[in-house]
UniProtKB/TrEMBL annotation:
The keyword NAD appears for this protein: yes
Protein name (record): ADP-dependent (S)-NAD(P)H-hydrate dehydratase
Free-text function comment from the UniProt entry: Catalyzes the dehydration of the S-form of NAD(P)HX at the expense of ADP, which is converted to AMP. Together with NAD(P)HX epimerase, which catalyzes the epimerization of the S- and R-forms, the enzyme allows the repair of both epimers of NAD(P)HX, a damaged form of NAD(P)H that is a result of enzymatic or heat-dependent hydration.
Enzyme nomenclature, EC number: 4.2.1.136
EC supergroup of this enzyme: lyase
Species whose genome carries this gene: Niabella ginsengisoli
SUPFAM superfamilies: Ribokinase-like, YjeF N-terminal domain-like
Positions contributing to AMP binding: 371-375, 400
């Protein structure tokens, strides 16, 4: 286990007056009993102490430990190899730190000692944004029972370090009774939505996806999304591309059929029946030429089934926000942070972004995928899902095009839009993790993501 390296060290345990402090006192007792040198520092111990704190304080007193009441003037000096345990505040913190507690946290952050936070780094708020606040910068956080949403937000990255979830045996009926807006998408969750391919099935059972993508100089985006779509289980895939892009597409993805635009370099028009297609993905590499923009408007007006909207299709939407109301219900938007800002506004902290996505998903009856580390999926029914797969090796051009192809391919097979979004994001990240394991995060490319989709246990490990 990662924290085995902390055995046989000296510990300085900082405890607040609540239950988090109580946890710190219990840790102090256990470490003392196992022969470690432990110093305990109490903060505000004269104020309202929780009963957990009192019980653990009494137990600790029976074990030989140094317990020091911290006063505002005396911040302790610690040996460089002492491990600091932060049990000052946990989930009960309901406002930003000030006064001595803020000073103490700033002091700990200035030290070079390793810090282990208990449940939450002190100062981090559970349900509110912590942007710009003072909080412990931990190397490791040992959190109880489940991930806290605060650990999934980019703006909190510098605080929690490596997060370890400790099972404290909370009763399943209690856990089930806790209402939560957010779900974590892990392998177990995915296994509840994945459909097995029946032995007697044929290609007609897995739908026909249409990818509308590419322009002169950006055929790569079209190829990446089409190839990813082919590897997401769809029965048939057609790519609608500008005339000049047909050869590129046919050579790169011979399994896909092509529809050829009347324009040579851009997408401008669809003059065939869209009924045979069971899903449409539009946007990668299409640019924002006038004809392409008008075409998107027409498509939004005419087409009634859910679509996957990405890249330039999103940028066109952000320049014509009235068109958002034309999106067919169940459509899936896949913005990266910049595209999201263009669509729904800048200057939001991470929680505001998430809440706005949930609100817009509800109002427009669509799914919004906020891409990033722990991609967030906002659904029309008010629930939000954080993905657990993926890595920084995916932070490269083309990764998003692959995601569009995957989700379009899954949607084509008859999955509900919510499921297609969740499953697609998970698969994409899982492929990213496989690619990173094979090629490393630095050198892996979007093409390697597609290659890595071809892993038998992609969705079961
Ligand atoms: N199932 C569970 O939940 C389990 C929970 N467990 C543990 O309990 C922890 C939660 O404990 P908790 O509720 O006692 O709150 P905690 O984080 O110790 O802090 C509360 C104290 O902080 C104070 N305070 C608040 N803001 C402040 C400020 N800015 N500056 C100064 N003070 C401030 C607040 O004072 P007040 O707001 O009342 O003035 C109160 O005194 C949780 O993280 C985990 O470790 C596990 O042991 C078992 C399972
Ligand atoms: N640090 C990261 N951790 C996990 N996934 C990431 C990370 N960085 C990027 N990704 C994923 O890679 C994809 C990048 O998409 P995007 O920026 O649209 O790429 P492009 O437009 O170049 O195709 C997203 O799905 C995103 O979630
Ligand atoms: K803490």
């Amino acid at each position: 286990m990662a924290y085995k390296k902390y055995l046989n060290k000296n510990f300085a345990i900082f405890c607040g007056p609540g239950n988090n402090g109580g946890d710190g006192l219990a840790i102090a007792r256990l470490l003392s009993l196992s022969g470690h040198a432990v110093q305990v520092f109490l903060l505000n111990s004269a104020s309202k102490r929780s009963s957990d704190f009192d019980i653990n304080y009494k137990c600790l007193k029976e074990v030989a430990s140094v317990i020091i009441d911290l006063k505002e003037i005396s911040l302790p000096s610690l040996a460089a190899d002492t491990i600091i345990i932060d049990a000052i505040f946990g989930t009960g913190l309901n406002r930003s730190l000030d006064g001595f507690s803020k000073q103490l946290v700033e002091y700990i952050n200035r030290l070079n000692n390793k810090v282990v936070a208990i449940d939450m780094p002190s100062g981090l708020l559970t349900d509110l944004s912590s942007k710009g606040l003072t909080a412990i910068k931990a190397n490791n956080t040992l959190t109880f029972q489940c991930f806290k949403a605060a650990f999934l937000l980019p703006e909190n990255e510098e605080y929690f370090g490596n997060v370890h979830i400790l099972d404290i045996n909370l009763h399943p009926s209690y856990l089930n009774s806790v209402e939560t807006t957010f779900e974590l998408v892990d392998q177990q969750f995915i296994s509840s939505i994945i459909k097995l391919r029946k032995a007697f099935s044929h290609k007609g059972n897995f739908g026909h996806a249409l990818i509308i993508a590419g322009s002169y100089g950006k055929m790569g985006a079209a190829v990446l999304s089409t190839k990813a779509c082919l590897q997401s289980g769809a029965g048939l895939v057609t790519a609608h591309v500008p005339a000049k892009g047909v050869e590129i597409m046919q050579i790169s993805a011979p399994e896909a059929m092509c529809r050829i635009d009347t324009q040579s370099e851009i997408i401008s028009n669809i003059d065939y029946d869209l009924k045979p297609y069971t899903s449409i993905g539009i946007g990668p590499g299409i640019g924002k030429e006038k004809m392409t923009t008008s075409f998107l408007y027409q498509l939004l007006k005419d087409y009634q089934k859910p679509m996957v909207i990405d890249a330039d299709a999103l940028n066109i939407l952000s320049e014509n926000p009235d068109w958002l109301s034309l999106l067919p219900p169940g459509s899936i938007l896949t913005p990266h942070p910049k595209e999201y800002a263009r669509l729904f506004g800048n200057d939001m902290n991470d929680l505001e972004k998430i809440n706005t996505a949930l609100q817009k998903a509800h109002d427009l009856k669509i799914i919004i995928i906020l891409k990033g580390h722990h991609t967030f999926i906002a659904t029309p029914d008010g629930k939000g899902y954080f993905n657990t797969t993926g890595n920084a090796g995916m932070a490269k051009g083309g990764s998003g095009d692959v995601l569009t192809g995957i989700i379009t391919g899954i949607l084509a097979q008859g999955y509900k839009p919510n499921e297609a979004a969740i499953l697609g994001v998970y698969m994409h990240g899982a492929a990213g993790d496989n690619a990173a394991a094979k090629y490393g995060m630095i050198s892996m490319t979007a093409t390697d993501l597609i290659e890595a989709l071809k892993t038998p246990d992609l969705l079961t490990k």
